[in-house]
Structures are given as C-alpha cells and as structure tokens.
Specification:
CATH architecture: 3-Layer(aba) Sandwich
Distance between the termini: 29 Å
Number of domains: 1
Radius of gyration: 14 Å
Structural class: alpha/beta
Largest sheet: 5 strands, parallel
Length: about 150
C-alpha cells in the first residue's frame, strides 16, 4: 500500500494557498498538506525545529515552493535544500507567479524538479495544481526516509 507522505506548500499569498488546497482536495488526495509562508519555515519543517520540533521526521512527498516570499525566498531555500544531503532528493516544484527568466534559470541551475507559472484564470490554476499534486504525491516514487542522524 502506498504511503501518503506530506505535501509541503510554501506560499505567502493566502488566496493562492486557498486555491491550492482546494485543487488538491478536489482530486481527493489523502496526503496531509502543511502550509508555511516563507523559506525559513520550510527549513524549520524539514529540520524538525521551531514550531515543527515535535513532528514525525519524514521527508515530504513534494515541496511546492513560491519564488517570492518574505524572510527567505524560494530560490534561497531551494539552494539550502539542495546543499543538505538529508534533503537534496526531495522533489521541489516552483509554483510561482514569476515569469522572470532569471528565476527560471536560477531554479533549474539549483536543481528544481519543475517550474510552473501560476495561471491567472482560477480554473486553470486549480487544474495545474491538481496535476502537480497527483503526479508528485501519488505517482512519483521516492526513496525511503533516512533515519535521523545520531
């Protein structure tokens, strides 16, 4: 039986968060979605620190990461994820309003698994997120979560 790993959603736009959660729910995904609003919280979640210190240590199925966020943006957090051997294999999909070529280039040079520009039309946004969620949370196979360091 397939293990339903958490989807980590990092976005500071409450409307986009609401639409993303709606899209994933419409597809009936059983995966728990944890929402954070910046890159610092992404790293806290992954490292089980701060408000996530008591969570079960498992890698998420995918991180849906906005580029433009306060405190630490998506590119900075992607760089930190890819530098850390414990996290570098986690699939990361940039889900951003940014069409800036520099954001595309930097995301892919840092090892992003995909870059999706948020569609402006609500129904297209919902469909795009639903496809992302279905693939990364259900179809894609991940390696097992390594044991915590001693």
């Amino acid at each position: 039986m397939k293990e339903f790993r958490t989807i980590l959603l990092a976005d500071d736009n409450s409307n986009d968060v609401e639409l993303t959660l709606l899209a994933l729910a419409e597809k009936g995904l059983a995966n728990r979605v944890v929402v954070v609003s910046d890159g610092v919280e992404v790293l806290d979640f992954l490292r089980c620190q701060g408000k996530f210190k008591d969570r079960v240590n498992e890698l998420p199925a995918v991180i849906l990461l906005d580029v433009k966020m306060p405190r630490m943006d998506g590119l900075e957090v992607l760089e930190q994820i890819r530098k850390d051997p414990a996290f570098k294999l986690i699939p990361v999909v940039m889900l951003s309003s940014s069409r800036e070529e520099l954001d595309f280039q930097k995301s892919y040079s840092l090892g992003v698994n995909g870059y999706v520009v948020k569609p402006v039309e609500i129904q297209n946004f919902i469909e795009a997120v639903a496809h992302i969620g279905m693939f990364w949370a259900l179809i894609n196979e991940l390696p097992p979560t390594p044991p915590p360091p001693k």
